[in-house]
């Protein structure tokens, strides 16, 4: 068995996973990607090697496959697991709920079973602020109630958190960190990796960049009559590289708690129109957009209270909204040129 600081990264060729692989390599770890590329592209592996100057160990299979997982874990002495692999489109989850329940729950159960079998002590789970539903107050801290969430995707995150907690409490060695992301945006400063939506984007920033470059005709802003500064929804947009660094900090935590829960956000909210206007200002391009009706299920404002992760893991966001939007545009331009 090969020994070293091997970290399994499921979904490691995806948006957040790929950036976390870079952070892991920069921090002296040896990430091992397990990805079936249903939501990602294989060329990202080459880009990771170009950014880091290191060879990337990767396996192409569904992480629900226990037999193949066992082969990997028998070959490498695994120090920890970061579990990203999941379907994540809110709208699609409403139309195809069983796909989300099967994939998101089964893949987590599979990874927890293998972690128990091979006595892995560190497990970081990719969760989401969607577990809070429509929050009673902002900023949202980790003690906010877990409320009804309208989408099957959001519900899978709630159920997965419960599965993690139950597993950790029953284990004599496993320590699990739940990272509740707010709104990851941006791209690696090199412009070599970034968000790669397959089909029409579900998130604001890739829709902005695709509209700016001409792939999409127009951006629709859903509602301008919310009780916010300009009437559009407020969200907490965090640079994906900062989010990636939070995973490394979580792995390095020496907490004795079976389950540790952290919000990962900047602690600052920005409206949709602020994002659009900032993108136009920092990149010198126009984004054609119109105001549409409110979208069902959208909360007026959600942003993080991030005191806990700042104090416990000594993590703090380094990049600004402007940085993230510059990097996202560089990635979009590079991507368009390579098509």
UniProtKB/TrEMBL annotation:
Q: Which residues form the signal peptide?
A: none
Is the NAD keyword given for this protein? yes
Q: In the UniProt record, does the keyword Isomerase occur? A: yes
Q: In which pathway does it act?
A: Carbohydrate metabolism; galactose metabolism
**What is a single molecular function from GO for this protein?**
UDP-glucose 4-epimerase activity
Q: Which GO terms describe its biological process?
A: galactose metabolic process
SUPFAM superfamilies, A to Z: NAD(P)-binding Rossmann-fold domains
Q: Which cofactors are named for this entry?
A: NAD(+)
Q: Which Pfam family, giving just one, matches this sequence? A: GDP_Man_Dehyd
Reaction equations catalysed: UDP-alpha-D-glucose = UDP-alpha-D-galactose
Annotated Gene3D superfamilies = NAD(P)-binding Rossmann-like Domain (3.40.50.720), UDP-galactose 4-epimerase, domain 1 (3.90.25.10)
Cellular component, GO annotation: cytosol
Q: What is its EC number?
A: 5.1.3.2
Write out the entry's keywords from A to Z.
Carbohydrate metabolism, Isomerase, NAD
Residues of the NAD(P)-binding domain: 8-326
Family classification: Belongs to the NAD(P)-dependent epimerase/dehydratase family.
Description of how the protein assembles with itself and partners? Homodimer.
Question: Any idea what this protein is called?
Answer: UDP-glucose 4-epimerase
Query: Which organism does this record belong to?
Result: Parvicella tangerina
Q: Which gene encodes it?
A: galE
